[in-house]
Amino acid sequence: MRRTAECPSCGAPVQFAWSGAVQTACPYCHSILVRHDVNLEKVGITADLPPDASPIQLFTEGVFDNRRFTVIGRIRYEWEQGGWNEWHLLFQDQTSGWLSDAQAEYAISFLVAPPAPLPPPDQLAPGQLLQISGAPFYVTHLTRVRYVGFEGELPFTTADRSEFLTADLRTFDARFATIDYSEQPPLLFAGRFVEFDELRLANLREFEGW
């Protein structure tokens, strides 16, 4: 059930699809709004997101491992060789996850508790093996990423995400993980790569000529 609050800046109704949402944007005045229990605080104005060719958009629906989800948010990041989207997913059981959408390569991941303290970034190098949940993951990239903007509902604020380091890892059987060093202790997201058709997506963006 969607909840509605009042934008503290313009008074317009702001709807939430997820009770755990921490940050959203007013669809009318574009204020960035952070939740403090039942109150909303304006902390800025949203930036225009650059155009991209992703067919996914807010309220795209899909299925992952027989679990239905709806896209309720997006973060756009850039690095030295381009940009990508992290789509925030809300599942029917009110859990949330992420769909990484980078140059037509897709992966779904979830925030998980690390089985042991994660190594600091200066102790990681591409090709290095780490044991995560009993499986060997090797480091593929260490990437300094820059936050570009967001839309929809997020589980955290973006105030401290202007630039930070991530480590991408994968196994030989298509499992995927990211260590996010935007916080201390760092965050671990784990999941697997997926094919676009496997997600059975609906309510996609329509492009002229498709």
What's the structural blueprint in terms of helices and strands?
Elements: E1 3-6, E2 13-16, E3 23-25, E4 31-36, E5 39-45, E6 61-64, E7 67-79, E8 82-91, E9 96-102, E10 105-112, E11 129-132, E12 135-152, E13 163-170, E14 175-180, E15 187-194
Antiparallel strand pairs: 1-2, 3-4, 4-5, 6-7, 7-8, 7-12, 8-9, 9-10, 10-15, 11-12, 12-13, 13-14, 14-15
Describe this structure in words.
Strand 7 and strand 8 form a beta hairpin. It is built from no helices and 15 strands. It has an 8-stranded antiparallel β-barrel with strand order 7-8-9-10-15-14-13-12. A 3-stranded antiparallel sheet has the order 3-4-5, with no helix packed on it. The model has no long low-confidence stretch (mean pLDDT 93). The chain is globular and about 50 Å long. The protein has 210 residues and is mostly beta strands.
Low-confidence stretches: none
β-strand percent reads: over 45%
Q: Strand order within the widest sheet?
A: 7-8-9-10-15-14-13-12
Secondary-structure element order, N to C: EEEEEEEEEEEEEEE
Question: How far apart, in Å, are the first and last alpha carbons?
Answer: 34 Å
